[in-house]
Amino acid sequence: MTQTVTDELLRANERYAEAFTDPGMDARPVRKVAIVACMDARLDLHEALGLELGDCHTIRNAGGVVTDDVIRSLTISQRLLQTRAVVLIHHTGCGLHGLSEDFRHEIELEVGQRPNWALESFRDLDQDVRQSMARVRTSPFLPHTDDVRGFVFDVTTGLLREVDPAGTPGR
Ligand SMILES: [Zn+2]
C-alpha cells in the first residue's frame, strides 16, 4: 500500500506524542498576541519570531488578508481569549502579488459558478499591508486596535520590515 503524505504526518505525530508532556496551559495565549499571516510554506512564524507553544494565536490564509473570517477569529481571540496586540505579516514573492482578477473569471468559466469570495490580489505589497492594518483598526468588533502593526517578511533573508501605516501607495 502506498503511503500518502497524510500517512507520513500521522507517523510523525506518533513520535511527537511519545515525547509530548502536557504543558498544563489553558487556551489563552501567554503573550496576548494574534498574528495574521500568509499561508506561504516558507514562513515559519514560530521560528521567525521566537515564539513558543502557547504564546500566540496564528491566523493564516492566502495573502494574510484580513477577511471577514479573520475578523471573526480576531474577535474571538480578543474578546474570549484576552489577546491585545495584532501583528500582520505579508511577504515577498507572494502568489497573490500581481495575480489578475481574471483568475476568478477563469474559474467561473470552468465550473459554471462565480466564486463568492474576493481574490484579494494586489499590486503594491506595502499598500496591501496598510489595507490589512486599516481593516483591523476600523473593525467595530475588536476592542483592542491600538497595537496593530504590519510587516513584510523577506523570504530570502528571513527579516521582517515594518510598513508605515501612514505611507502612500507606490503605484
Ligand atoms: Zn503569500
Task: Write up this protein.
The protein contains 5 helices and 5 strands. It is of the alpha/beta class. It has a single domain (26-162), classed as Beta-carbonic Anhydrase, Chain A, CATH 3.40.1050.10. Strands 2-1-3-4-5 form a 5-stranded mixed sheet, with helices on one face. The chain is globular, with a radius of gyration of 18 Å. The mean pLDDT is 95. Zinc ion binds at residues 38, 40, 63, 91, 94-96.
The name of the CATH superfamily reads: Carbonic anhydrase
| Computed Rg | 18 Å
CATH architecture descriptor: 3-Layer(aba) Sandwich
User: Helical content, roughly?
Assistant: 25-40%
Structural class: alpha/beta
Count up the helices.
5
The biggest beta sheet is recorded as: 5 strands, mixed
Beta strands, count:
5
User: What is the chains' assembly state?
Assistant: single chain
- Mean pLDDT comes to 95
Structural domain count: 1
CATH class descriptor: Alpha Beta
Tell me the overall shape.
Answer: globular
- List all distinct small molecules, including ions and cofactors, that are bound in this structure: zinc ion
- Going across the major beta sheet, what is the strand order? 2-1-3-4-5
Report the end-to-end length measured between terminal Cα atoms.
54 Å
What is the CATH topology classification name? Beta-carbonic Anhydrase, Chain A
Poorly predicted runs are none
| Strand residue percentage | 15-25%
Order of helix and strand elements from N to C terminus: HEHEHEHHEE
Keywords: Metal-binding, Zinc
Protein name: carbonic anhydrase
GO molecular function: carbonate dehydratase activity; zinc ion binding
Function: Catalyzes the reversible hydration of carbon dioxide to form bicarbonate.
